Amino acid sequence: MFFFNDLKVRSGRPVACGISSLLVVAGIAVAADGPLVPRSPGPATFIDLVDHPAPEANWDRFYALEDHLAGAFHKACGEGACLPRRFLWPMQLRCSVRVADATVAACIWVIAGSDLQVRAAGSIDPDVVVWRCVLPVGDAVAVDAFHAALEADDPLAARLPGAAESLRQGVARCLAKQGAAS
After folding, report:
1. Which whole number is the average pLDDT over 159-172?
2. How far apart are CA 86 and CA 134, in angstroms?
3. Over the stretch 88-146, which tens digit does the pLDDT of each residue have?
4. Rounded to whole angstroms, how far apart are CA atoms 106 and 50?
5. Which residue of 5, 7, 121, 130 has the fewest CB atoms within a 10 Å radius of its CB?
6. Helix, strand or coil for residue 132?
7. What is the sign of the dihedral through the CA atoms of 93, 135, 46 and 69?
């Protein structure tokens, strides 16, 4: 059970009862008001690549592409491309498609890494890190051109039309940054 007396601000100081009551009332008012994000009255401007051109119409092709990219990632890591990190795993790929012109607007590939340490006392400490890699997608890459470019034997070597770098370079740049601890 949550007690208002236990509510603290970041500095660790307790919040006065009057302020905590005000916070609760404000929270109830916001919740009763409904969602804070306005709903779009018209058709979507962007959709998931899986749902292009209709819901789940691109399902098989997209997931085959995701598997193909994951296989290339594992192969590259096996050849030392992921060092000094080990145990990296591509978790999920998502791409948005601009509905008006059927072009891929953006893609994010979530990659996770882990390391487990066994302590002398017998406990196991996990170290899990997640990267949210924005893939280098050029401007106005048609959905079919996007798929065709990444169906190559080494899709990570592909540089999408209009992109400044290959997928391999973009992912390497992403993984060189500090990931988010999970």
Report:
1. 95
2. 21
3. 999 999 999 999 999 999 999 999 999 889 999 999 999 899 999 999 998 889 999 99
4. 13
5. 121
6. strand
7. negative
Local structure of 94: helix, strand or coil = strand
The domain spans of the chain are: 4-33, 46-181
Residue type, 140: A
Tokens of 49: 């690549």
Q: Express each pLDDT in 8-54 by its tens digit.
A: 444 444 444 443 433 333 343 334 444 444 455 678 899 999 999 99
* pLDDT confidence of residue 40: 55
Plot region of 166 (φ>0 → left; ψ -120 to 50 → alpha; else → beta): beta
Structure tokens at 74: 């594992």
Dihedral Cα 40, 45, 50, 55, nearest 10 deg: 60
Which amino acid belongs to residue 151?
A: E
